Amino acid sequence: EAVRHLYRFERETxxxxxxxxxxxxxxxxxxxxxxxxxxxxxLNEKLLRLDPDGPDARDCRRRIARQYLVLTEFLRSNxxxxxxxxxxxxxxxxxxxxxxxxxxxxxxxxxxESNKPNAETLTLLGWALMLETPEDVTAPExxxxxxxxFEEARKADPDFTEASDRLANLYMTRMKDGEKALAVIGDVxxxxxxxxxARIFRYLVLRQLGREEEAxxxxxxxxxxxxxxxxxxxxxxxxxxxxxxxxRERRHAVERG
Length: 257
What we know:
Layout: H1 2-12, H2 16-25, H3 29-32, H4 37-50, H5 57-75, H6 81-87, H7 91-94, H8 98-112, H9 119-131, H10 144-156, H11 161-174, H12 178-191, H13 196-208, H14 212-225, H15 233-256
């Protein structure tokens, strides 16, 4: 209810501090699931117009670039994505390729941060460069710049795990190099043994490589770390699978009997 009131006032006024508050609110996990990328872009663009030299101006541009990349990836994911995007409120972004716009934004930010590289900027830049490369390209030389950006991000801030996630995903899905993907994830797990996301990521990669026994070790570790009442989605799914399979066996035994 409070957020609805804030939105009403935001629409009626040009108060930069009010828009800034809404920008922060839509980044919270609770709100992020309810707000479209289009709305995030609108709020950040408005804040930039109202306070172009504000302390968070660069963050606004980064957030806009991120949402452009989210939408670009979504709209390229399948043939009906453009129609779906328009149906759920992505009209303005769906009408043009925002990937190029994101790339230009990020290159400008990177130049501004040349004395102090920012891990998020470098990660988003690597993502933007990857999206510029056709999905059917697997040649390593075509991804040298993408890999370099992700590696620079990991060096700039080892705790910014998105860089490692995207690099490992690049190796696995684009370059078809599972061993390099495992090496990247292994670095994360070595630094943070209880990182559930990394454990599950490695579990999925190992399964794709057919290394089931090793995969089960990571899944078991994730199960032990995550509280049973709030499991990670993948852990929850596999727990459910474990319950379903014995029930199936018992049912078939009864039917056979």
